[in-house]
Amino acid sequence: MGRPLALVVDDEPDICELLALTLERMDIEAVTCGNLATARQRLAGRDFQLCLTDMRLPDGDGLELVQWIQAQGLRTPVAVITAHGNVETAVRALKYGAFDFVSKPVDVPALRKLVGSALRLPVADAPPGRAVLLGESAPIRRLRETIAKVARSQAPIHITGESGTGKELVARMIHEQGPRGDGPFVPVNCGAIPGELMESEFFGHRKGAFTGATADKEGLFQAAEGGTLFLDEIADLPLPMQVKLLRVIQEKSLRPVGQSTEVPVDVRILSATHRDLRALVAAGEFREDLYYRINVIELRVPPLRERGDDIELLAAHILARLAGAMETPVPPLTPEATAMLRQYRFPGNVRELENVLERALALCSGAITAADIHVEAASAPAEATLAAPVAAGDHLGERLESLERATIEQALQANRYNKTATARQLGLTLRALRYRMQKLGID
């Protein structure tokens, strides 16, 4: 195989020379041109492994080249060169499908890291990652296709969906199918870190930085260096930490607690939450600038009730895994048990399905029957409660209380009566959940 081939598009000769020299020192053959039209001709005539393009060109802009490459079905990753501090332009480039961006004046070490990441991109027929999203329903097929596209980018991705749908699984797939698949994948539950420890946990600290800091400690960003940092339940970050996180994402550097100098970081950010970030932004509980920075691309993971026949495929897979761990034969599901699973709405989604099947496996004798499937307390969909005919003497307050009680009981069961997890699923504080349970007489 010959050397990798890169195209540099910039109308400033000095910039072209700097970029070409940097690439040549990395044993990459560089071809340069100064306008959009010539760039299209070069890309159509040769197989380039990388394209670096300025945003402003004499006959157009870098975004047009990104869109043209996408329309031609080329797999050449494109990095756009933007003016220093022009975050909005960089975000637009990532949304259009750019792999990453470089700010002027060009930071050569950062450029080398970017080029290295781009040239590790998997080819079209590369084997799939270890994480697998099971299912053949239309929503899941579309999600898998989207993951394959966005994994090639460096753009921050925000994953939404109800609790238990598999948001971390989706994040792992993005990591494994992207150029950082050989690097670390570091998941962190933002709601599980005490507020006073957050800065140290994320950025690390130096010995003596505070009482109890008896040794240097690397933070989560350093642990994810060269890989992916997955910020689960990012909505739980307090506002002061949101400010610090935004700065690290924008500047690509951080300052450990107790250290006076900045440390560069090379990390891709993926985030997730089951809560509505737009509503939190409107309420002043989540920073708008951070929201737009992490939400360059948004992926929604569908709930189990939207996945049709997938429930049978998932049930078979989960039972096989559980039975293997217990060293017992895989029990079949009777038609009645399968029908019960298909009719249930699963507010706790795949996680709840696993809990239900684990209990059924422990209780069954041979095949799993309907009697082994314990979902009675929440078997009726919420719409049935709302659609029930109004009888004489019904009061709106009583009907709303009944619906609220059923919803809370359903969520409690799905979360194995863990109040903290239930409150998070319902979008409530723990105090608010306790108050509602007491008011409704839920023990």
Write the layout of secondary structure elements.
Layout: E1 5-9, H1 13-25, E2 29-33, H2 36-45, E3 50-54, E4 56-57, E5 60-61, H3 62-71, E6 78-82, H4 87-96, E7 100-103, H5 108-118, H6 138-150, E8 157-160, H7 167-177, E9 185-189, H8 198-203, H9 220-223, E10 228-232, H10 239-251, E11 253-254, E12 263-264, E13 268-273, H11 277-282, H12 288-294, E14 297-300, H13 310-326, H14 335-343, H15 349-363, H16 382-387, H17 396-414, H18 419-426, H19 430-440
Parallel strand pairs: 1-2, 1-3, 3-6, 6-7, 8-13, 8-14, 9-10, 10-13
Antiparallel strand pairs: 4-5, 11-12
Helix pairs in contact: 2-3, 13-15, 17-18, 18-19
How would you characterize this protein structure?
With 443 residues, this protein is an alpha/beta fold. It contains 19 helices and 14 strands. It has helices spanning 13-25, 36-45, 62-71, 87-96, 108-118, 138-150, 167-177, 198-203, 220-223, 239-251, 277-282, 288-294, 310-326, 335-343, 349-363, 382-387, 396-414, 419-426, 430-440; strands at residues 5-9, 29-33, 50-54, 56-57, 60-61, 78-82, 100-103, 157-160, 185-189, 228-232, 253-254, 263-264, 268-273, 297-300. A five-stranded parallel sheet has the order 2-1-3-6-7, sandwiched between helices. Strands 9-10-13-8-14 form a five-stranded parallel sheet. A hairpin with a 2-residue loop joins strand 4 (56-57) and strand 5. Helix 2 packs parallel to helix 3 and helix 13 packs across helix 15. Mean pLDDT is 85; it is low at 123-129 and 376-388.
